Amino acid sequence: MIATPDRTPLSREFFDRPVLDVAPDLLGRILVRTTPDGPIALRLTEVEAYDGSDDPGSHAYRGRTARNDVMFGPPGHVYVYFTYGMWFCMNLVCGPEDKASAVLLRAGEIIEGAELARTRRLSARNDKELAKGPARLATALGVDRSLDGTDACTPEDTPLRMLTGTPVPSDQVLNGPRTGVSGDGAVHPWRFWVANDPTVSPYRAHVPRRRRS
């Protein structure tokens, strides 16, 4: 029998740890997105860790800016960024304040509200693809920059909340290089995912973007 996922909100202390401890521990946790159109719940199956000033792949590697300000704390808040001029991606801030570490939410399984998610992800061929990739995840949940800075670990009914869920056993967690990261940051095996889960996105190495002539 499959145990019912724990719906208790994750504590601030859960996020106030090193990013490489938080990232794999987020697998199996539940993210709830509440909107006027209804709620969507997602079970996390793939994440990536980014370690601030110690990590060339991090948005905070070169210091604090208006764009990445939320990454500097406090932990348990949502950092949303806009990429490639068309997509939003969301992260969960962790570690002590001013450390600027965060976990990118790369993929998950929609466990509630699939009907609403389908209206936002019309190109998905099936429900396993609704949140298969960080931009798809944000699109399915209706996440944009207006949610940047949202506190995700409060008991109140906020737009985004992280719940305890059912943690994935360590022997079912795999790790490898992060997707699309270039340079010195490409070597870090800081992508974590649930083994054999069909909602996990495929790995893609970084491909330099060519300038238009």
TrEMBL record:
First-tier enzyme category under EC: hydrolase
Gene Ontology MF terms: hydrolase activity, acting on glycosyl bonds
Pfam families linked to this entry: Pur_DNA_glyco (PF02245)
UniProt key word Hydrolase: yes
EC number of this enzyme: 3.2.2.-
Keyword Aminoacyl-tRNA synthetase: no
SUPFAM superfamilies (alphabetical): FMT C-terminal domain-like
Gene3D superfamilies registered for this protein in UniProt: Methylpurine-DNA glycosylase (MPG) (3.10.300.10)
PANTHER family: DNA-3-METHYLADENINE GLYCOSYLASE
HAMAP family documented for this protein: 3MGH
Family: Belongs to the DNA glycosylase MPG family.
Name assigned to this protein: Putative 3-methyladenine DNA glycosylase
